[in-house]
Specification:
2 copies of one chain form a homodimer. With 445 residues, chain A is an alpha+beta fold. Helices cover 20% and strands 38% of the residues of chain A. Chain A contains 9 helices and 30 strands. At the A-B interface, β17, β18, β19, β21 and β22 of A face β17, β18, β19, β21 and β22 of B. β17 of chain A pairs parallel with β19 (307-312) of chain B, so a sheet runs across the interface.
Chain lengths: 445, 445
């Protein structure tokens, strides 16, 4: 089975646990039989392999998730990384071209596309296999999965089938309705559209050619920024006449709100926290300071460097509109991680910011300089090699580095390296980085 | 009226808002008529003056509260500061000796003693005046206030009067009972012991002489560490035969739990926080990161550099036993304030800690050195004068200072000065300070 997993950004519905660079699918919330924890993306990959050990899995994602995917799946999957965010049709077209041009999969083979973030069980993957087989048959150009609704919901689009059986032609699609309309749809036999479907590779490549002008991976990738923002449903599904839907009645949970997300958590309490005399309450504390929950019921509580949430679980679907835009205060990177400790805008508009950086042994931050900011580094633990303006120095606990705008610098960790960084400048953003080449293979590095 | 206000430590019952150096009585939670806020200690002082504009007020407290009291009351009160914590009898004896020896109050004048932290209204202060007048009469050696119980409570000791009238001899004292026993006491006419009483100054000075060996302020102060830990109730009240109680039926609320504390708060939400669709919920956020409370009821939520609390209000009286001992992460000092941003114990037991210091214009940190730690300072805003090993340097944004163990240093702010300080060492405590003399009046300072 060829399968494309769509790993999107997670937005604000699980704030403050997810931010634009740290999506829910990478959070290790599922306990495995051996007691260790795995993330949604790890769990889904493992279960796909259990159903089809020869599955060829490609993850369609954005560039800023690549290092996390590699960290969690260790190079076992293909990655089609969008250079920037467009909508689902360009993302799927790019991934399909990647399968054809990079992985060499022939156009007449089928492909299943599904989101990486619902909570599902093994029957779901058996259904993916059925979708795949049905698409291979070629009776229809597109075979969708229709999920039997657990309740009338405003959160999903609906598929109306012609017939009530396992397989049916699609009668029509319906946009996200209000509850009363959802009830009406369901009485007509409507199914949830979970964004799961299968097609032959050449079908979507033809679509790419006609809608985007090319089906070549290199060209799509190079020209990605100029592609239209257009959804797969709009560009393809709603226009296709030869389209079928297969009914799925198994476990399928959208983990997009705190209410549903906590249902899937294995542990009630994660991090430096205690929950005393609490009922149906989940606590995640990623801050260093302690958290105490006392005598509360039906709450989701989360504290991270981005913020603190205390929500009644059933109210959590309203969260999104109350979350403000802000820079991420915590990021995992290929070289390690950083946490913002302090951020102040001074009276004259000047900014200061303090970070704790942790660099993984053997990894390095790219050789770079900044235009707008000065950085003061204090090495508080570990050892490594500091490069400033092409000079390499051994550094360790108690050493400091003062990096002015324009000074080229990089750091490589020999043992786990902890740095307190103080930034000062008129603009303190992750974007103020000019990256340079450096030969990391040379002597002493 | 001579009055001693007991301003004790606040312990853990209002964690994380109070810590050992930052007690609840200094938190500005009461809104005044003009819209500004005042603390318990400011409110109590103001109301005493409204009842008796000539009142002579002395605050009995510990040394680490002196700068806060001065900051909030601006030198309008006497301060009797314990060099270390003993129990209530030595504290009251020291304050009485202060009244006699330092303020020159004659031994035959009466003194009222009351805690600074209950929530009370003007009738309470009229009752203090009555207690004072009754003590002046000299019918009894000790005149207590007995508070009419609002409910059977396990939190207070009880006074059983002989008679049910306004004034009575005391029949007996009862320790904090269980609820059923409290009900029984109340049916016998028992009153809460709120720790409010009056006596003639010479009475308590005689007691000090016989129990502590001296009634001289200088001697008590100098020898304070060796005084016994003994409560006023045990040393005096429970042994005294000539003792009366006056009944008080007005407003008296112990603000010692989150449930009662939030009742007295003027604002539902304080700090960088929003409460959406919440009922009977109070939120205090003293962190920089945002806090969202959504759809919750009957909660007290507090986030400070010391920790995060989410408690059902009525459960909050159980909080104390779940709070661990930890160093304070935030302190106000006479020179300004600091917040701990980051604290790590590394694998080899070495520690690192990052702080944000704010120094008030014109104020300075004392000339000092450390034995155990290295400090790396980065000045991120403001201007000031840095002294290192007797050399004075002008400093401002972007400057740094590297202070090794044994290096003498001080800093004075010209404009509000912000410093990110990184500490490294085998022991990072507020106690690792050797203070030195420095002539702050010299040229350039």
């Amino acid at each position: 089975m060829n399968i494309i997993l769509l790993s999107g950004g997670s937005g604000k519905r699980l704030w403050p646990l997810s931010n634009e660079v740290r999506a829910k699918q990478f959070l290790k919330i599922f306990k495995k039989a051996d007691g260790s924890h795995e993330s949604m993306v790890q769990r889904m990959y493992r279960m796909i392999c259990e159903v089809d050990s020869g599955a060829s899995v490609t993850i369609a994602t954005s560039e800023n998730q690549v290092s996390l995917i590699n960290a969690q799946l260790g190079g076992k999957v293909g990655i089609s990384a969008e250079p920037c965010r467009r909508d689902t049709f360009p993302a799927i077209a790019l991934a399909a071209a990647y399968l054809h041009d990079v992985k060499g999969i022939p156009g007449n083979e089928a492909v299943v596309v599904c989101p990486v973030d619902p909570y599902v069980e093994s029957d779901y993957f058996q259904m993916l296999d059925k979708l795949y087989a049905q698409a291979e048959k070629g009776e229809a150009n597109l075979v969708l999965m229709g999920i039997e609704p657990a309740c009338p919901s405003e959160k999903y689009g609906y598929i109306i089938p012609h017939f009530p059986g396992l397989l049916s032609d699609v009668h029509s699609f319906k946009e996200k309705p209000d509850i009363l309309t959802a009830e009406k749809y369901i009485s007509q036999g409507a199914l949830w559209n979970g964004g799961v479907f299968a097609f032959k590779l050449e079908y979507i490549l033809d679509m790419a050619k006609s809608v985007l002008g090319t089906a070549l991976y290199e060209e799509l990738f190079r020209n990605y920024e100029n592609l239209p923002r257009i959804s797969f449903d709009y560009a393809v599904a709603e226009k296709e006449k030869k389209i079928q839907v297969m009914r799925f009645a198994g476990v399928w949970k959208d983990l997009g709100t705190w209410n549903t997300f906590t249902e899937a958590m294995s542990d009630q309490v994660v991090g430096n926290a205690v929950a005393v005399q609490c009922e149906n309450t989940h606590v995640i504390n990623e801050l260093q300071i302690p958290l105490i929950a006392l005598g509360v019921k039906n709450l989701a509580i989360a504290a991270t460097p981005d913020g603190i949430l205390v929500t009644e679980k059933r109210s959590s679907d309203k969260l999104k509109s109350y979350v403000s835009d802000q820079r991420p205060m915590y990021e995992k990177r290929i070289w390690g991680e950083y946490t913002v400790l302090d951020y102040r805008v001074q009276s004259d508009g000047h900014n200061s910011l303090a970070k704790h950086l942790i660099i993984i042994p053997g990894r390095h931050i790219s050789y770079q300089y900044h235009v707008h900011r000065t950085e003061m580094w204090t090495f508080v633990d570990g050892t490594g090699k500091l490069i400033i303006d092409d000079i390499i120095t051994e550094v360790g606990r108690g050493d400091t580095a003062y990096i002015k705008p324009g000074m080229k610098h990089a750091i490589k960790a020999d043992t786990e390296l902890h740095i307190i960084e103080v930034q000062m400048g008129d603009e303190l953003t992750e974007e103020d980085i000019i990256r340079l080449d450096w030969d990391w293979g040379q002597d002493g590095l």
